[in-house]
Predict the structure.
Amino acid sequence: MNQRLRVAAVVNPAAGGDGERAVAVIEAAGTAAVEVFETTAPGDATNIAYKLAVGDAPPDIIVSVGGDGTVCEVVTGLHRARDSATAAVPPLLVAPAGTGNSTYRGLWNDEPWDTVADRALRGTAVTRTIDLARIEHNDDIVVLGSGSGLFAASLLATRNRPEKGRELLMAAALAAMSTYVPYPGRVWIDGEARYEGGIVETIVGGFRYRGGLLNLVPESIVDDHLLDITLVTSAADMGAFAKAAMHGNVYDVPGIETGRGSRIVIERLDGQPVLFEHDGQVMPETTPSYEISVLPAALTVLSSADAPPWFHEG
């Protein structure tokens, strides 16, 4: 008889999705012994994931059950374990139990969770390594991606709104767009000043989607050892940009700049703090610039055997 997989589910009960159902699907597969670890405060998922990965008997799979912020915390713990452990760190399986679930889409292209869990636990998923990024001034690990300006303002606008799920993110983005003022900024890529002027938004990937629906970095590859940036300048028509993010290619919109490199610096030129987020979490407004560096092949994940187009084949 085959030995059952040992699965550790790190569950954020405060996330925007149905974490109980996500865990129930894993248990219903009948192929794994599932142990649940619930978080009670920010940072818990990082500590839980680290201890699981470096323990005497690490699980076969660690599952992040929450949103993109929970994924980032779990990955931060796994990355720390990778730096300190002598054995391999367990692969990560991401469950869609948050609001936008963009990281989940980046790994599984919105396949139903029931199908994903069955494949992962029956051995028909594949293990891949993907790149991460690091924010240099505070060593934060970035999984999904990061951004300055409008997208961070949209996350702030989600507070106290009645909508749920991806509809909440879309409604908040429209609300933020109606009052947002571009900031004077400069973007550097690998030491070269790529743009200077009015900036509405920068999106650095990472994964291509934000809010689960908006394709904002449409040429980003998650395992090419590089970061892609989409820069929305003050010359862009935001209506055209929003439509292209939903149904077309944002790079076709005039006023959109793009770039790719291993180190990206975003700075605000008037000395005011940059409004900045990563993995769906808005950062404290304390610094006029952010430097983001790629961490090549830094995370092992379970993903579909039919690789989405943002993976290299093989």
Q: What stands out?
A: Residues 5-124 form a domain with the Rossmann fold fold (CATH 3.40.50.10330).
